[in-house]
Input
Amino acid sequence: MHVYRYQYKNYNRSHDKRKKRRRILPVTILIVAAAVILSGGVRLDPGELGFLLQEEIVGFFLPQACGQVQGTAELTIADRLFAHFFLLQEESGVSADYQTQVESDWSYEAILAREAADENYVDAATGEVIMTQEAAEQSSTSMPEGETKEQTQGTVPEAAEGQQAEAQTEQQAAQAAETQTAQAAQIQTALATEKVVVYPREKLNDFDYLIQNFYQVDSTTTINSSQLNADALLGKDLRLSHDASTPQILIYHTHSQEGYADSVPGDASTSVVGVGDYLTKLLTEQYGFNVIHHKGEYDVGDRDHAYSKAGPGLEAVLAENPGVEVVIDLHRDGVAESTRLVTQVNGIQMAQVMFFNGLSRTTAMGDIDYLYNPYIADNLAISFQMQLKAAEYYPGFTRRIYLKGYRYNMHYCPKTLLIEVGAQTNTVSEAMNAMVPLADLLNKVLTAQR
Output
């Protein structure tokens, strides 16, 4: 079984220091243990004392031999030594990585707080959320077309006022119709009708090829070929099981306050919530899906616990709408100010999109039992099928699928997608434009268009 794991560097000690420590350690352990026992602080029989001394000595000289086989009881000293010297790593189950984080001591609450700050949104130096929201300049109100200078200076007769109001209404209606027409034309322009690239199945079944071309594995977690198997991922039938008479898709935002470079503070329509509105419109009007757009705010005042706060709200919406089969948590990424996540689809500039998966497993801790997710395989399947369709029809539209160690509320529904739409350096229009191919990809996957 292939295992893709981030390797940590170990600091080397000089030969002299190692020799000195090795001479001193056993003697020190014996002296301390004897002193504790004689003072009456600890009561151990000789067998227990011998076992503890073995643990300490083996742990110092062979730290890698002190691991545990996943899912089994702790190994004996003899088993560990045998596994360390004679078995391959995969056969022994002993981890080859030294623990470089204190995750094993983290509380459940601390894990959840880390989860919320783990999507590249927080500046490591300042601890501030990366969100550049410059206020848009207020446009000056222009005079209505056809109005004279004299009329603006004096009192407008009632008849003229009525005509003016009617003219303004007609003008606004005409502008709205023109905008909708342009938007519809843009949608058709951005849509791809044929595959641009074809990926042979034999290539996709190569684990190394799959990782290198479709995934970015964060150092906090590991993934293996049993979880990333192209046949299994593509073999999942993700078609919706019922028609649009009841809700089918739920869109929500764990981080509803995320905005873009030209977002207007306080105006949700120019934030990631507004992007969700547009995706909802496309899915309902263009493709006929029944979509709920939940706009609960879970990151106001206490962003660190946004996921734990969003969980009950998400659970309530799903309980009220049991027919929902697809859950989309729509986000905006955070990047360096010099980074621009943009691409062009048929000449239209738009933000790049990234699918994000949590594996409920960290490099230091292994599987996190209290962040259990029975739907990891389903989560991975829908993100990969979306990613492959994007690579085939819209090359360059998506970044590689990002895999991290926590859960991100992806355990409530099998077909759950966490989607990052651009970053704080993108414009609102670039994020909006990206919803056109994204809606098309959702339609292709959820209706099983091969």
